[in-house]
Amino acid sequence: MESPSVSKTGNDFFYGWDLLYKTVQSDVYKKADLLIALVHFLLTKHYNFRCVGVGDDKTLPEEEGSELLPDSWNDDDTKYSLRYVHDKQLYLLLGHITEDALLVNMMDINTKKVSNICLTPDTLVVVVKGSINTVMPTASEIVDRYRKELLDPVFTGNSREVTTQTTTSTTAPRADPLRIGEPRRPGSYTPYGYDPRPFGFPDIGRGDLDPLGRGGPGNLFSFPSRPDMGPGPVPRFDPFSPLNPNAGRGPNPDHMRPPNWDSDYFM
């Protein structure tokens, strides 16, 4: 359960307070009683605690508890001792009244965590009879202090369900240009950062970028294989046509003769 936020819920946060107050209003006779009743309301409604009686016994009871304040909860003039159960764990709420202050302690019996808060009943409680806004005009601020100073230090991880989503991001490893490996496709080599054959141009010259000599003949086209040349290595030469190395291996017979060819054939 998420921590309650009074400022966001507004008056709905105190829905149910009137019912609790009616069950104890005949017993309330001092201002500190209303401050203890308010923290009890916060525990039972918004933190799913159940009250299992009065006292400071640290033995976990078998009873489930109640959302009501037990009998004799404020019989003592100077102190309060209430026991609560939450998720099969026992907690003690202890209050002590001094001359002008109310000191409240909360203790987790299992973890031994203790929190405390100091309140001034005379300034926070106007009267002991009436609606929540009448008796405690700053009830929202008091609840915020209860949550931050008294409850959160003790109930971290216990009063709310924390859902942790683990986001696994798979990042493809970057290619290492110094790593020796197989070419990206047969007969070619693409250095890191180069797009293979952009715009469909022939894959010419990439062999010169490979220090290991992979990827073809480089800037020179390989001489076309001919059956009459026999076995063995085939020489290379600059092609007449950069797009078709097999075309045009000699003067084109359709070319026109030079000027004055018939008269000056020594030209």
TrEMBL record:
GO CC field: proteasome complex
Entry keyword set: Proteasome
Signal peptide: none
A UniProt-annotated Pfam family: PI31_Prot_N
Annotated stretches, region: Disordered: 162-195, 212-267
InterPro entries to which the protein is assigned, alphabetical: PI31-like, PI31_Prot_N
Domain PI31 proteasome regulator N-terminal: 25-161
Keyword Thylakoid: no
GO MF annotation list: endopeptidase inhibitor activity; proteasome binding
A GO BP entry: proteasome-mediated ubiquitin-dependent protein catabolic process
Biased composition (Basic and acidic residues): 176-185
Family recorded in the similarity comment: Belongs to the proteasome inhibitor PI31 family.
The name this protein goes by in its record: Proteasome inhibitor PI31 subunit
